[in-house]
Every structure is written in C-alpha cells, then in structure tokens.
Amino acid sequence: MGYKRKRWWCRNGVMVMEYHTPLRHPPGEHRAKREKPTPEAKRQANQRRKALEVQRLILHNFSEGDKYVTLTYASGDAPDMETVRKDLRHLTEWLKRQYAKTGLELKWIRNIERTKRGVIHIHMLVNNPPGRDMGREIRSWWKERHGTIVKVSDTYLDGAFAKLAAYLSKSQRDESGAMTSRYSRSRNLVVPDPEIKEFARWNVRRKGVWIDPRIPKGYELVKESLYEGIDLITGYPIRYYTLIRSGTGGTCGTRKA
CA spacing 20 to 30 A to 20: which of 56, 122, 147, 232? Predict the structure, then answer.
C-alpha cells in the first residue's frame, strides 16, 4: 500500500490524516533518518495528538452558541486539587439538575490550570440548552459561592475550534516538574470513528513536494489547520488538516458573551 487516509466525519466538520505506510516505498520519497526524539519533541507531538482528539470531540458534540467559561477563586484563596475537584463535582451536579429541566443532557470538557503564581483557573466548555444562557447561570452560581468573576464566551465555528481545543487539552508542569494534564470530559460525549481508506499510489507528495489536499465538494480547507511534516515513529511524511462546510471559514473559536 502507498498510504492511508483517515477521515473523521464530525457533525460540524471533517478532520483528515494522511500518512505513508512502510509496506511500500513511494516514488521519490526517502525515509528520514530516524533519530531518538528529544523529550521536547515528544511532548509537542503528544500535545498535538491530544489537541486533535479534543478538537474532534468538540466538532462532533458542540456547536456555535455553546458556552466557554473560565472559573477562578478569590484573591489569596489557593485551594488544593482535592478541594477544586470537590467544587467541580458540586457544580456538575447542579448543572445536571438544571439541564434535566430542559430535557437536554449536559455535555462538558474542562481543564484545570494552576498558574506560576499558584492561581487556579478552570476552563470549561458546556453545551447550551435552547432558551437558557448557561454561561450567565454558571457565573451567578460560582460567584455566589466563591466571590469571583467568571469569564464567559460564546463558541463559534471559525477555525473549526482548533485554538479552543488546544487550550482545553494543554498540559503543564506539576509540583515535581513533570508534564501533566488535568483535562477531563463528560462520559456521554460521542467519539467519532475514522473512515479509513488505503491507496496503492502515493498521490499526496510528488518528488518530495506536497500536493494540495483534495477537498470534497461543499467543503473548504481551514488553512491554519494544515500540518505537513515527518512522523516521529515511522520517519515517513504525514499531514493532517480540517475541513468545514463552505462559507463558514475563520480563525478562532470563542467570542465574549
């Protein structure tokens, strides 16, 4: 086989990965010299892979108008992680009761961040029921209990949520200096399965030069999503990119409510 193409057909877009299979050497291609990747290179590759996974979840389970909130604690209040998770359990339980009244199931993705100054920031994406503004309701609930201002943004499709996914999935160093992620999500999110096709001819690159992606009718390429490079594991070329329906382009992912 020349190469494989994986397509994740999400509700709000299509994510594509194209990569060479080592079973057949493509004309004009040479395997890159395999060197042991540095810890930083591995960290970046793992972070990129995780961000793409989260982006697929967002594209499939969330839509424009859903709410992205940032929760903080009062100045001087630096709770431990056990306390933070307890507070989030209380928030989630309250949210489930509110969503039950609307007949809609709560869906969420969040990441807990501790800044260099020790300040806790909780970044959270939730779906928004029709006729409700859950961003404002979360702001009111959190402020009443913790006395802090909550930042609220509406999501929008520009950039296919790439920046939002990168932020929600990012890792940081813990107290020991090790990289760790405090990303989590609700269990009811639908994980899209890829459509996998194998091709005998390597028609993604020619003589070491990338060929423009083939875009299905009715879609357009999110230009900033295009990545073309060398797979650290196989040493062969790999690329991935995102498509959205024509006329919805853009560059970002959230807008202040």
Answer: 56
Angle subtended at Cα 195 by Cα 163 and Cα 191, rounded to the nearest 5 degrees: 50
Which segments in the chain show pLDDT lower than 50?
1, 178-179, 249-257
Helix/strand/coil (H, E, C) string of 137-197?
Answer: HHHHHHHHHHCCCCEEEEECCHHHHHHHHHHHHCCEECCCCCEECCEEECCCCCCCCCEEE
Amino acid, res. 32: A
Output the six-digit token pair for 252: 């970002």
CA 136 to chain centre: 24
pLDDT value for 119: 83
Domain count, the chain: 2
Output the pTM of the full model. 0.84
Alpha-carbon distance of 60 to 13, in angstroms, equals 8
Find the helix packing angle between 39-61 and 162-169, rounded to 10°: 120
* Domain with 108 in it: 65-155
Rounded Cα distance between 126 and 190, Å, is 14
- What's the sign of the alpha-carbon dihedral 20, 24, 30, 31? positive
What CATH number is attached to the domain comprising 77?
3.30.70.1910
Based on the fold, state whether residues 131 and 206 are members of the same structural domain.
Answer: no
